[in-house]
UniProtKB/TrEMBL annotation:
<keyword id="KW-0645">Protease</keyword>
<dbReference type="GO" id="GO:0005615">
    <property type="term" value="C:extracellular space"/>
</dbReference>
<dbReference type="Pfam" id="PF00246">
    <property type="entry name" value="Peptidase_M14"/>
</dbReference>
<dbReference type="GO" id="GO:0006508">
    <property type="term" value="P:proteolysis"/>
</dbReference>
<dbReference type="InterPro" id="IPR000834">
    <property type="entry name" value="Peptidase_M14"/>
</dbReference>
<feature type="domain" description="Peptidase M14">
    <location>
        <begin position="11"/>
        <end position="367"/>
    </location>
</feature>
<keyword id="KW-0862">Zinc</keyword>
<keyword id="KW-0482">Metalloprotease</keyword>
<protein>
    <recommendedName>
        <fullName>Peptidase M14 domain-containing protein</fullName>
    </recommendedName>
</protein>
<dbReference type="GO" id="GO:0004181">
    <property type="term" value="F:metallocarboxypeptidase activity"/>
</dbReference>
<dbReference type="GO" id="GO:0008270">
    <property type="term" value="F:zinc ion binding"/>
</dbReference>
<keyword id="KW-0378">Hydrolase</keyword>
<comment type="similarity">
    <text>Belongs to the peptidase M14 family.</text>
</comment>
């Protein structure tokens, strides 16, 4: 597949962290008749849950995003993917002939509207795979059983705390081949998940070397990825993370798009056997050593601030008038990291840093 100019694929009207069906309906309703748009169910509050189906090939790929309503980066990436699939080019025709893609862009529309992880009943849908107590959980299970996918792509966001291994590189994208049992054994389906992740990682290392991590594989049968892996369907967890000064995650969406396209290309061309389980296992596990801001208060005597040494700040995402704001809070670690990394480091002894702290109302956290 030839290299794309992503700027021509990017959908600029779908941006920022707050994404609901209001933000994507114009786009998905305007898709050409090569796409099939369906209502596959309704949320707790009765909002429509939609799926888009493209292609008529034998390889069936199911994707869903915003199972957690405040995790919207991958939704933007699948909108970009759909925009790419609108093109009248040979590569898209090849995908259509070889694959059938079914995408649920927002599984949890109530959580998306409230900008919360949970649904309107305050249930985490990714802990409801066995009970199926929520309508959104039952929608996904019904689509899974009706569609009978060969691969599932479970699309999420992760917090800014994650780094790759022990390095000071943020985990911009993380992957997981979910376990299917408590012992975290391998199975044919899990091995295929690992091989496809290895392929997507090879692509991402070309554009963000060192910024790909491996998510924790602790088994939980209530998690959807683990449950689908238990049913012998290769399932891949995508986690969209932080990139430098990209709190809106418009850079990260591009990397998720590139990973999705690489995965589809591998399945299209039957080249998954070129990648090995060992390549997946060589991806460093995620650490939790990042905070958003570190404030060094070396000059506490002359600036009359409390001697706190180093203060770690983590942003809390707050929805205000349909816009996500980042509110700084002092961060207390459950477990002190071996080494602390920050997306931004400021020193009260530096006049420019002190000015930034004042303008962003962070000085009160030192007083």
């Amino acid at each position: 597949m030839k290299e794309l100019n992503y700027s021509e694929i990017y959908v600029p009207n779908v941006k920022g962290r707050y994404i609901t069906y209001d933000h994507i309906n114009d786009f998905i309703n305007g898709l050409p008749n090569t796409f099939k748009l369906d209502e596959v169910g309704q949320s707790v509050r009765g909002e429509s849950i939609k799926s888009i189906t493209f292609g008529n090939g034998p390889k069936r790929i199911l994707m869903w995003s915003q199972m957690h309503g405040n995790e919207s980066t991958t939704t933007k990436a699948v909108i970009d993917l759909l925009n790419y699939l609108k093109q009248n080019v040979t590569e898209v025709s090849d995908i259509s002939n070889a694959c059938t893609l079914k995408i649920i862009p927002i599984l949890n529309p109530d959580g998306a509207r409230d900008y919360t992880r949970v649904n309107a009943n305050k249930i985490d849908l990714n802990r409801d795979a066995q009970d199926l107590s929520q309508p959104e959980s039952r929608v996904l299970k019904n689509v899974f059983e009706d569609f009978k996918p060969d691969f599932c792509f479970n699309l999420h966001d992760q917090r800014t705390i994650f780094n790759v291994g022990d390095t000071n590189k943020p985990a911009t994208v993380s992957f997981l081949a979910p376990a299917f049992d408590m012992e975290r054994n391998n199975s044919p389906s899990r091995k295929l998940s690992m091989q496809l992740i290895a392929a997507m990682n090879s692509r991402l290392q070309e554009v963000i070397p060192g910024h790909v991590g491996r998510y924790d594989d602790g088994f939980n049968a209530n998690c959807v990825g683990d449950a689908f892996q238990m049913s012998k369907t290769p399932t891949i967890l995508f986690e969209a993370g932080h990139y430098f000064e990209d709190y809106d995650r418009d850079k990260t969406r591009a990397y998720i798009f590139k990973a999705l396209l690489k995965g589809i290309s591998i399945l299209l061309n039957n080249t998954i056997s070129n990648y090995k389980v060992e390549q997946y296992l060589s991806i460093p596990e995620n650490g939790k050593q990042f905070v958003d801001v570190v404030i060094k208060n070396d000059n506490y005597i002359s600036n009359h601030l409390t001697k706190n040494g180093v203060v770690a700040i983590q942003y809390k995402e707050v929805l205000n008038n349909d816009k996500v704001e980042f509110k700084p809070e002092v961060h207390v670690f459950e477990k002190e990291p071996k080494e602390l990394f920050a997306h931004k480091t400021l020193n009260c002894n530096d006049d420019n840093d002190l000015k930034w702290l004042k303008e962003n109302d962070l000085l009160n956290l030192l007083s």
